[in-house]
Amino acid sequence: MTLAPLGLLLVLSVAGSTPELRTRLAERAEALLPDEDDAAAVMDLATGELVLAHHPAVLARAFPAGSVLKLASAYAALDTHRLPEEPPRCSGRAEIGGRERMCWIRPGHGRLELTRALALSCNIYFYALGDILEGEALLRALRAFGLGKPTGALPGEEGGVLPQALSREDRIRVAAGDSERVQTTPLQLLQMAAVIAGRGQARSLGEVGGRQRPRLENVAAVEVLREAMRQAAESGTLEATRLGTLEGAGKTGTARWEKGWHTHGWFIGFAPFRAPRFAVVAFAREGRGAHQAAQPGTELLSLALGGEEPKNIPWERPPGHLRVRVLEKLRPMRATVMTDGGRLSCDGVTLDLTGATAEIDQGLLDLGRPDRRCRELYAPGEGVVVRLGATTRRYRGALRATVMDGQIALFNELSVEDYLRGVVGSELAGKPEALKAQAIVSRTYALAERNRHGRAGYDVCDLTHCQLYRGRQDERSEVDAAVAATRGKVLWGRGVSEPLAPTYFHSSCGGSTSTAASVFGSSEPSSAVADRVGTSGPLCSASPHHRWHFEVSREKLAQALGIAAEGPAFEVLRSDSGGRALEVRAFGVPLTGEAFHARVGRALGYQTLKSLALSGREVGGKVRFEGRGLGHGVGMCQYGATELERRGYKYEKILRHYFPERTIGQSPP
After folding, report:
1. CB-based burial label for 640 (10 Å; 0-12, 13-18, 19+)
2. For the chain, which residues make up each domain, given as ranges?
3. What SS3 class is residue 548?
4. Could you give the CA distance from residue 597 to residue 584 in angstroms, rounded to a whole number?
5. Given its phi and psi angles, is residue 443 left (phi above 0), alpha (psi -120 to 50 degrees) or beta?
6. Which residue ranges does the record assign to the Sporulation stage II protein D amidase enhancer LytB N-terminal domain (predicted)?
């Protein structure tokens, strides 16, 4: 086997596929998963060869596997006859193992048996299953799939992480794919798909000589996994993809990565179901859900089977407009949409309706009549109202609705200026000049990050992951005035010839800001500045989070980190110029500051450690953290901006204080 580099791709010269197919797959993978942290691979099941290895360096790295691990826990339960006597009922949450657990779908799935629970990836079912599984049986199943050791298909592949033993809490979380205790490479998950496709056995990935092939002895259990993956494609978590039309089968997974607030998405699959020819794995590193891996993975599988590339119809964005995904956090299954008078349209056909309630039925939006079922519902006009249960939101502009990842996905389409009327009021409750500064910073961020979620078909989300946006709920007359006074103004970097780079902001810096390079590893121009003027104290000292502390027992901290409580609990190894911890050591284990913050936040609450400008010391069996500020500390400090206005600064001078490397200019088209 010879390896032929193609940019960041790796096209494998193999006997089982044509050069034309390999090239088409490589080109399509680059278009579907362009980020250097994304990856995909396609395996020819007849030969064991890789037909595609997209971004091989990522394919060889280990990450938490998310819900894909439910396949292994299901196999362990079937193999050891440890199924629940009565299937648990999923109502969206349940207390299991002494803790409240949440399902990924808020209303829950009801009562399910194993096959259907796997097809719908029900968290509650698998949390409960993990509570009755034996730890060794679960680990044995993971090892049987070949997880925890390199496949040998590519040089430098990591072995991953597979613990020697599992506590009760570990079993519960690993069984549901909600744990960093098990980490696998994309190549290992591709091998997993191949073994399931092959009814328990498959050729070694890449046909590495002398390497033992994974083999599952319980063929009857494997058939259950196959059937669940087929149901996932036809009426489960993959229903919104084209996998069912390929007669394929698959499993998705979503897991947080080390920076905490982002997620990465997985997809493994094979097709055709009866006589599988190809298996695929797709990995979207900095996505927000499994669909960002499932859609590309399905298209690559279709192309490998001889299908044509789909003709994508991109959104024809009017100049200065955005598409914002809204209300995703509520995971809507039923939504009422009303316009300000314009007629709704269903898959492009205008209806005699200005309002309708849509429910998901077999992957479509059902408006209550047989002739009113559509893939996309569109509400035109300059204003819409959306109702989801007790939540009502009003939006400027138009709204689209479709089905994605088993929920109704809602997209608000509106001008950047109207979007800012909602954003600025959500992000800052300041005075006129501070609001103007916020408007320019938020406009710059929105335009620079336009298409941030492009793979999923929209520009930005309505969460703090992008910018907080709640439609017209936070509009105020003083915000409208600030947006209008700064219309079209943005912060440029080295000049208008350079691409527009995002600008950042946070609540309070605690006395000094940090660069985007040190906190995010970003390359955009930014400075670390002292948040003071002359000899006065910090500008943001009025913030309630200017100085804070948090105490936690050694045992709780170790449990949150997933580390044995041995040795010193916490020390900062390296900080940036703004005093934010870049590297720490906890109980003898080195971690990045972001990884430490994310693990503590997930287990103990994200407001416990309010920033990484902190120190920690042990006092009487407890760890006391002391810190300053709230947020990441990059860019404009909002409390500081408000104080600068109180001292007579206009918005231009406020921005020069926090962004000395930037200049104010007009936005691009």
Report:
1. buried
2. 2-304, 313-487, 489-541+633-666, 548-627
3. strand
4. 10
5. alpha
6. 406-491
Give the Cα separation of 278 and 300 in Å (integer).
Answer: 10
Give mean pLDDT in consecutive 10-residue pieces for the chain, a chain of 669 residues. 36 52 91 88 92 94 94 97 90 93 88 95 96 96 94 90 93 94 95 96 66 83 96 89 90 72 83 94 78 89 79 67 92 92 91 92 81 89 90 95 85 96 87 95 93 81 90 93 96 75 92 90 81 85 95 92 89 93 93 87 86 94 95 94 95 95 87
From the CB of residue 275, how many other CB atoms can be counted at a distance below 10 Å?
9
* 19: number of Cβ within 10 Å: 11
According to DSSP, the β-strands at 364-366 and 373-374 are antiparallel
At position 404, the amino acid (one-letter code) is M
Please state, in angstroms and rounded to a whole number, the distance separating the CA atoms of residues 426 and 295.
33
User: d(Cα 108, Cα 121) in Å, to the nearest integer?
Assistant: 11
38: CB partners within 8 A, 6+ apart? 54, 55, 58, 282, 283, 284, 285
Task: State which amino acid sits at residue 507.
Answer: S
Helices then strands, each counted (H, E), the chain:
18, 36
**% of the chain surpassing 70 pLDDT:** 92
Question: Residue 200 carries which DSSP code?
Answer: T
Q: What angle do CA 458, 460, 463 make, to 5 degrees?
A: 130
Which residues contact residue 565 at a Cβ distance below 8 angstroms, ignoring those fewer than 6 apart?
Answer: 554, 555, 557, 558, 587
Contact 416, 443 (CB under 8 A): yes
- Contact between 68 and 177 under an 8 Å Cβ cutoff? The reply is yes
Amino acid at site 331? R
Q: What is the DSSP letter of 327?
A: S
Distances (CA, A) of 320 to 227, 414, 447: 47, 9, 9
Secondary structure class of 539 (helix, strand, coil): coil
371 CB-near residues (< 8 Å, 6+ apart) = none
Residue type, 470: R
Residues 509, 37, 262, 187: is their CA dihedral positive or negative?
negative
Q: Domain 2-304 belongs to what topology?
A: Beta-lactamase (3.40.710)
The SS3 call for residue 513 is coil
Rounded to 10 deg, the angle between the 70-80 and 123-132 helix axes is 40
C-alpha distances (whole Å) from 430 to each of 34, 421, 494 are 39, 14, 29
Euclidean distance between CA atoms 64 and 184, whole angstroms: 6
Alpha helices in 198-237 (DSSP H): 219-235
Give Rg (Cα) of the chain: 26
Cβ count near 27 (within 10 Å):
15
**Is residue 628 within 8 Å of 541, Cβ to Cβ?**
no
Q: Is the CA virtual torsion 483, 485, 488, 491 positive or negative?
A: negative
Contact assessment for residue 262 and residue 288, using Cβ atoms and an 8 Å cutoff: yes
Residue with tokens 């607030």: 261
The amino acid present at 63, given as its one-letter code, is F
The DSSP line for 452-503 is TTGGGT-SEESSTTS----GGGG--HHHHHHHHHTTTEEEESS-TTSPP---
Q: Determine the Cα–Cα distance for residues 68 and 41; give it in Å rounded to an integer.
A: 16
pLDDT for residue 286: 64
Phi-psi region of 291 (alpha: psi -120 to 50; beta: other; left: phi over 0): alpha
Q: Please state the separation of Cα 91 from the chain's center in Å.
A: 24
Q: Report the alpha-carbon distance of residue 432 to residue 401 in Å, rounded.
A: 36
Report pLDDT digits (tens) over 611-656: 999 999 999 889 999 999 999 999 999 999 999 999 999 999 999 9
